[in-house]
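Duplicate of #3305? Posting structure anyway:
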């Protein structure tokens, strides 16, 4: 049986749990970075902290993410500290299956929900194999904090959603089961929202979580079903990144979302027009 670790209100310290190669500890300079990969109609974000931690949030709709990681990581580096699947939709986990086959993950964080599909069964098989190789499989349940480093300035991920243990449950629409995570790296912050909808955003604000962030990964690829005025105002980002495929069938990003972001004077960066987007911030 697959091990299920739930840390409700817990603090998960990566340094105490991961065994990584010595060279994986080498500092990568004074800046942290977050890359939003152009992988078509889907999400795939890659974080590298100034203390050498690597985090992949979602993997997109294909194995294109593997080529993107090849460009960002040294060839000898076959480990990723933390892999997060915000929710098991095909445009978020398809690429992660290939990632788990190629790389050794220290921790895999996901929401644990059930789906009836061949892709989902393949995902569960990949998780089981990764766990057999030593990975810790963790079920998200807010509030959680994942400490990335205790050296110098604070670097951590706060998990704001899901609000309860939903592992094993089925949902007709699982967008609001998305893991919402806020990265804090010293004085800077990035909010990752998966496919959270307007309804989920409202609940998040009602819970009182501090969503204020420098960078917002706009929910659901810029759909009008996400990014309410209230949520965007509470987040108050300088930059909003929209991950969507060029000429996608859904018309993402929607004009309503772009208008909301423009209303607050937020700089919009889109993978469908700019390709890969990498943002650096000094500690």
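Output from current build:
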């Amino acid at each position: 049986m697959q091990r299920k670790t739930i840390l409700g209100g817990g603090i998960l310290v990566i340094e105490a749990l991961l065994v990584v190669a010595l060279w994986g500890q080498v500092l990568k300079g004074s800046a942290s970075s977050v890359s939003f990969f152009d992988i078509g109609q889907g999400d795939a974000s890659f974080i590298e902290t100034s203390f050498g931690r690597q985090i992949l949030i979602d993997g997109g709709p294909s194995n294109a993410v593997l080529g993107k990681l090849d460009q960002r990581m040294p060839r000898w580096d076959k480990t990723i500290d933390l892999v997060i699947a915000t929710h098991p939709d095909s445009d978020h986990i398809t690429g992660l299956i290939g990632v788990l086959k190629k790389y050794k993950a220290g921790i895999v964080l996901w929401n644990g929900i059930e789906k009836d599909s061949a892709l989902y069964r393949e995902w569960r098989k990949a998780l089981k194999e990764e766990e057999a190789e030593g990975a810790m499989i963790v079920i998200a349940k807010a509030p959680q904090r994942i400490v990335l480093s205790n050296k110098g300035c604070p670097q951590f991920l706060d998990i704001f959603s899901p609000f309860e243990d939903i592992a094993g449950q089925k949902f007709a629409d699982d967008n609001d089961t998305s893991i919402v995570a806020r990265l804090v790296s010293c004085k800077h912050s990035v909010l990752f929202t998966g496919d959270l909808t307007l309804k989920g955003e409202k609940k998040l604000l009602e819970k009182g979580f501090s969503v204020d962030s420098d960078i917002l990964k706009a929910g659901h690829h810029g759909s009008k079903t996400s990014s309410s005025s209230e949520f965007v105002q509470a987040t108050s980002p300088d930059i909003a990144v929209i991950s969507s495929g060029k000429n996608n069938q859904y018309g993402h990003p929607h004009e309503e979302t772009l208008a909301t972001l423009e209303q607050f004077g937020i700089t919009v960066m889109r993978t469908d027009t700019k390709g890969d987007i990498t943002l650096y911030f000094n500690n």
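Confirmed duplicate; merging threads. Residues 26 and 52 are 6 Å apart (CA to CA). The mean pLDDT is 89.
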